[in-house]
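FORM 12-B: Structure-to-Sequence Request
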């Protein structure tokens, strides 16, 4: 609390002078009494309530004295202080990824707690501009140098989780364009952010990290895949226990009609287990779920769509026999074809060959293992993979590759050995492994048949299934000649309409969806990225730039408006006393 205009304290002499005058005025009141018969009664009434009688006689005096004191108080302009955010401008970076839906110790989603914190900070802006940025595949600016507090509150209340990976590094880089050499306070609302990831080269920028500080437990369905075989559906599922305690949970696999599998699973702490179930009933889709009350519920269920699949695999006889063994372990029909007859195959199926580029095999799905049109070169390095469904169950980091063939320019690289491409995907979806089986120890790894299982899933997808997407993923798709497609959930709830010719935008929430146009239907699934299935405890902290004030700023709030309101009320009361011709001093 403080005073802005201390020089006006001298005006207090006026109410003091009036008060002194009051003390030296006559102390008696003239009163006419027609008879002394009622004198004792009048004195009894006066003595019975002397203070009330005094107040009635001097009400106007006290009101005037109070008004004068309030006027003096208004002149010296008293105020009180509240904490304010330092800097010339404020930037909020809000993580809207799926993990923000984790529950804290208060059983409240972390995202809602962050929104409450943002609303509290808005009250401390002291008229400073606010920029609000949300994370995602493409960072979005919701407020740019906004000064209107009501608009700030409105946008913060409208914030929602979009389930995308946060891509925090991209958002931090994007936010730097708003600094403009101004003293800036940046608040990052997320679950966890390491200090080393902050751009600390700005001396006039203060970083404030609001993270998940409460302990959380999470049991996750990391991956779930299913494929049709001659004896029914075969499934693979990975469960991860991210907590420090052993946990038992009920795993359920069901279709659109009933439960197909129900099993109690024991999960050791900080471990991942893989389970398989075979000969399940043929279904249009399968739902895997675990029954557990953990802090993060979004990764407790996965749904996969069972698209029409190719059941035959034709393997070039020049390919190593271990490839054939891997496919045969998947319980599908495998045929060996002489190299010179590969291009003559008429039946529907997947082709496995090394005859790259000599023929398109009538646009049939193809797995190329090595190339016969060029020579390999020696490589040395660790295998790195991108996030692809092909590596859902296969970790390639421990395999050794001695040589690779040259890559194809217009193919997408999804795995590399050091800096050299190792596995690529063509624009049409064919898979190219740029190494012969003899050039690697991969077939000796248990991940090799799991990778071939994923390859079979990828290459055998039917035309009624357009693929698996992450939330809000944008992708160019050819959906046919129809101009307009409508997206519905599996419960037949309308989502939105897309136009063919532009980039396809996947829905934000995980699940199965249907695209409809006239009588044509196509299916797709949306799943969380692997990053969004991991919940870690973070730490909230503050990093101040060298040129930023270390001490907190404060905002002054004046008492004058409230004093003026009281003065108006006093004037109304004085007028009423005068109107009723009350007692005056």
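FORM 12-B RESPONSE
SEQUENCE OUT:
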């Amino acid at each position: 609390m403080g005073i802005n205009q201390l020089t006006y304290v001298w005006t207090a002499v006026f109410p003091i002078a009036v008060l002194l005058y009051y003390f030296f005025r006559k102390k008696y009141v003239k009163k006419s009494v027609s008879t002394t018969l009622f004198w004792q009664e009048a004195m009894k009434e006066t003595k019975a309530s002397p203070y009330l009688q005094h107040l009635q006689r001097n009400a106007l005096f006290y009101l005037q004295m109070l008004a004068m004191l309030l006027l003096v108080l208004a002149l010296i302009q008293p105020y009180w202080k509240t904490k304010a955010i330092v800097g010339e401008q404020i930037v909020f970076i809000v993580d809207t990824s799926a993990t923000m839906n984790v529950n804290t110790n208060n059983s409240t989603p972390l995202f809602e707690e962050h929104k409450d914190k943002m609303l509290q900070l808005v009250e401390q802006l002291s008229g400073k501009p606010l920029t609000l940025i949300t994370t995602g595949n493409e960072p979005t600016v919701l407020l740019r140098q906004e000064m209107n507090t009501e608009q700030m509150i409105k946008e913060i209340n409208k914030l929602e989780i979009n389930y995308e990976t946060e891509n925090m590094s991209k958002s931090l880089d994007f936010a730097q364009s708003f600094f403009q050499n101004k003293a800036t306070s940046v608040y990052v609302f997320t679950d966890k952010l390491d200090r080393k990831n902050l751009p600390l080269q700005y001396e006039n920028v203060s970083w404030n990290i609001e993270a998940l500080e409460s302990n959380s437990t999470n049991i996750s369905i990391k991956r779930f895949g299913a494929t049709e075989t001659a004896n029914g559906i075969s499934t693979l599922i990975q469960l991860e226990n991210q907590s420090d305690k052993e946990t038992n949970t009920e795993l359920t696999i069901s279709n659109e009609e009933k439960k197909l599998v129900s099993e109690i699973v024991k999960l050791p702490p900080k471990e991942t287990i893989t389970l398989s179930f075979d000969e399940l009933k043929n279904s249009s889709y399968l739902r895997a779920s675990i029954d557990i009350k953990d802090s993060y519920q979004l990764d407790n269920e996965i749904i996969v769509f069972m698209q029409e699949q190719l059941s035959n695999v034709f393997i070039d006889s020049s390919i190593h026999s271990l490839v054939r063994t891997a496919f045969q372990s998947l319980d599908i029909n495998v045929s060996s074809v002489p190299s010179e007859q590969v291009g003559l195959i008429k039946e529907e199926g997947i082709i496995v060959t090394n005859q790259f580029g000599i023929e398109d095999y009538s646009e049939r799905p193809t797995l190329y293992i090595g190339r016969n049109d060029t020579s390999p070169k020696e490589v040395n390095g660790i295998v790195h993979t991108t996030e692809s469904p092909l590596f859902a169950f296969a970790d390639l980091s421990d395999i050794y590759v001695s040589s690779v063939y040259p890559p194809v320019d217009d193919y997408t690289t999804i795995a590399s050995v050091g800096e050299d491409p190792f596995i690529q995907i063509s624009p049409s979806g064919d898979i190219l492994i740029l190494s012969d089986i003899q050039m690697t120890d991969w077939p000796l790894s248990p991940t090799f048949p799991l990778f071939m299982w994923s390859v079979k899933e990828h290459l055998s997808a039917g035309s009624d299934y357009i693929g698996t997407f992450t939330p809000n993923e944008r992708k160019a798709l050819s959906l046919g000649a129809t101009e307009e497609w409508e997206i519905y959930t599996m419960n037949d709830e309308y989502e939105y309409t897309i136009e063919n010719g532009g980039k396809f935008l996947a829905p934000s929430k995980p699940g199965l969806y249907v695209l409809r146009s006239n009588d044509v239907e196509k299916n797709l699934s949306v799943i969380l990225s692997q990053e969004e299935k991991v919940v870690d405890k973070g730490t909230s902290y503050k990093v101040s730039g060298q040129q930023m004030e270390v001490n907190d700023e404060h905002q002054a709030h004046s008492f004058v408006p409230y004093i003026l309101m009281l003065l108006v009320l006093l004037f109304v009361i004085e007028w009423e006393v005068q109107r009723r011709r009350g007692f005056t001093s």
